[in-house]
DNA sequence: TAGTGCGCCTAGCGTTGCTAGAATCAGGGG
DNA sequence: CCCCTGATTCTAGCAACGCTAGGCGCACTA
């Protein structure tokens, strides 16, 4: 059954190809440009092939988002581990988060803005999401049982990131905003 | 030219009718349900009439959003003026903001989530937006020249509101999150 | 080599935002 | 009183969207 294996391998490659193409197209021209037709053209297959891999366009976006959580988690982890003091670690993680949102806006959009049915805080939550949130918990400090501080710190970062991204808040002073947040959320100083 | 006046009056009424219908339809069934066809049917005119009032669908959404800022501004103002102490005023305004987002999700979406070309912080910023932001500045205290504290407080509120709305953060504990924010942003204590 | 089944593509459905051109209606002049 | 003029509204249709049915062709099995 070697041919079957090869087929499955090729199929998996194409699966990944679709996800990558969708992300690249979104990052280059925005999600509005990611239509099933253009995406199919880009992977050099016809439209229906997409539907043999994914239930629909939403599922493709979800797959792109899911990969993004690995990246974001790793980026935050690297940032916080590079610092010694809790305060500096917090600032580094916050900067990493905001940089991620600013540098890869389309990916960030798929992860945190577009409608999704990814389970975010439940038993079905994918490991990548859990790990990414865990980085925030680690740096904020699990001062309470439910991670309230981590939630609010995350929410604050997300808020300013998304308002800047939507041009509802000036892009300048983002560093100052982060400093202000860090000042308030530094562990112990609570 | 009385007939002309009447015509203009009727036209203005219809203009408002379209905005109201769009908002109601969005609040009842979500913005996806607000198609130009359904909206036209609802106002009992044909589709092209919409385009004689608005440049396109985006312009209708923008008009709905603009009205929302009056509501939100008033709601925040009422809340903060009902309290004496700065801390309680801050909490009341925050609660008003979060309640607005939770109670009128479609309207909130049009104001703060959907793509828009409304000028948010510039010379062209509509008075309603300016006034609403002014309420936040008033309650946070303009501790710096550029309203950094107000921006970050607003961003934090927006972040948790929108993450809960998108089911990316549990809906519970929203009150606790607000308390935590208020604790950190209370004037003087800063 | 003939049969068989899977995989891919062509074609098309219903819906979207938006627009061109026909039709209709109100108001004013002969 | 009637017809003409101009504005206003509607019918019809375009291109693009997400998605799907059905048939064709190729690769593998026997």
Describe the structure concisely.
The structure is a homodimer of 190-residue chains. Chain A is 73% helix and 0% strand.
Features:
homodimer, 190 residues, mainly alpha, Arc Repressor Mutant, subunit A, Tetracycline Repressor, domain 2, 73% helix, elongated, DNA-binding
Order of helices and strands of chain A: HHHHHHHHH
What is the fold named in CATH at topology level of the largest domain in chain A?
Tetracycline Repressor, domain 2
User: What top-tier CATH class of the largest domain in chain A fits best?
Assistant: Mainly Alpha
For the residues shown, what is the average pLDDT of chain A? Answer: 93
The domain count of chain A comes to 2
CATH architecture of the largest domain in chain A: Orthogonal Bundle
For the sheet with most strands of chain A, the description reads: none
Explain what you see.
- Two copies of one chain form a homodimer.
- Helix content of chain A is 73%, strand content 0%.
- The longest helix of chain A has 28 residues, at 2-29.
- Chain A has two domains: 1-54, Arc Repressor Mutant, subunit A; 64-190, Orthogonal Bundle (Tetracycline Repressor, domain 2), CATH 1.10.357.10.
- The N and C termini of chain A lie far apart (62 Å).
- Chain A has helices spanning 2-29, 36-43, 47-53, 57-81, 86-103, 105-112, 127-140, 148-165, 174-185.
- In chain A, 38% of the residues are buried.
- In chain A, α5 crosses α6 (105-112) and α5 (86-103) runs parallel beside α8 (148-165).
- Chain A is an all-alpha fold and 190 residues long.
- Chain A is built from nine helices and no strands.
- The model of chain A has no long low-confidence stretch (mean pLDDT 93).
- The interface between A and B is medium-sized, with 32 and 32 residues.
- The structure holds a DNA duplex (30 and 30 nucleotides).
- Chains A, B: One of its GO terms (molecular function) is transcription cis-regulatory region binding.
- Chains A, B: This is Transcriptional regulator, TetR family protein.
- Chains A, B: Keywords: DNA-binding, Transcription, Transcription regulation.
